[in-house]
Description:
Structural class: mainly beta
Helix content: under 10%
Number of strands: 5
Amino acid sequence: MKVRKYGLAGLNGEQRLEPVFDDVCGIYGDYVLVPNKMDDGEWRDGFIKIWEE
Length: 53
């Protein structure tokens, strides 16, 4: 069984989001859409702010 998780890295290779997400669906301005499969089998979507001012 393979466990594959996704995160984000910056242009210089610095980690922006730790690879703990089941998928990364898109970047919308300062936010990234990350759906995750929960322990009960349901999928939940969330937005995470990736840029700090």
